[in-house]
Design brief:
InterPro entries: cNMP-bd_dom, cNMP-bd_dom_sf, Env_Response_Regulators, HTH_CRP, RmlC-like_jellyroll, Tscrpt_reg_HTH_Crp-type_CS, WH-like_DNA-bd_sf, WH_DNA-bd_sf. This protein is of the alpha+beta class. The strands form three sheets. Strands 1-8-3-6 form a four-stranded antiparallel beta sheet. The N and C termini lie far apart (51 Å).
């Protein structure tokens, strides 16, 4: 059975720590398993906790007063959430819901506050993560302001893909409803765009639900 130290060593956030520093973190974290559909954090509430994904998958969501959801991001192994609320002591700005069964390491506020000044590499990693999320938010705002639905779908497909043996591939099944929540459009409109991309040979949906991008989808300047 893997120890907390073994698990810590698998998390990129802690990759720069020395053995003693990693052990100090390992002594402070608790492992927890979340069920599919279970909320990790809820928009508008505080948890005072850093959550680090060991496996599984979770969605970062926000919703309006009528309950309409927008998917802001999808978290996978190595990702983490909750650091902003730990830093500014404000309520969470979004909800995180597990898409499948997910194991996480949990670090409380007191241990988090103690670790940051003691481990400069951890502080720097957290800062880089915040900058990365800010840049992602900037791109989303730009897409909503400047791109039509076609452009937003094309950009999102590219951002979701990864290079597998030289081929841009989205490993997880992409539902039309989820894509609509990401790009801020209706499911019907997204379905039409995806169908057009498939008919033009830009993308190809595999039997297992993954999507292969066969040529680079054009993005407006």
């Amino acid at each position: 059975m893997l120890t907390n130290l073994d698990l810590i060593r698998r998390v990129p956030l802690f990759s720069m720590l020395t053995n003693d520093q990693a052990q100090a973190i390992a002594d402070s974290v608790v492992k927890r398993r979340f069920r599919r559909g279970e909320l990790v954090v809820e928009q508008g509430r505080k948890s005072n906790t850093l959550f680090i994904l060991l496996n599984g998958r979770a969605r970062v969501l926000t919703s309006d007063s009528r309950g309409r959801e927008v998917i802001l991001a999808v978290l996978e192994s190595g990702d983490y959430v909750g650091e902003m609320s730990l830093i500014d002591n404000e309520a969470h700005s979004a909800t995180v819901r597990c898409e499948i069964q997910t194991d996480m390491l949990i670090l409380g506020r007191a241990d988090f506050a103690r670790c940051l000044p003691e481990h400069s590499s951890l502080s720097y990693a957290i800062l880089r993560g915040l900058v990365r999320r800010l840049r992602h938010a900037d791109r989303q705002i730009e897409s909503l302001a400047l791109l039509d639905v076609y452009g937003r779908v094309a950009r999102t497909l590219l951002e979701m893909s990864e290079d597998i043996n030289g081929v841009k591939t989205i490993r997880n099944k992409v539902s039309r409803q989820d894509m609509a929540k990401v790009v801020g459009a209706s499911r019907e409109m997204v379905s039409r765009v995806m169908k057009d991309l498939e008919e033009r040979g830009v993308i190809e949906t595999q039997e297992n639900g993954s999507v292969v991008i066969k040529e680079r989808a054009a993005q407006p300047e």
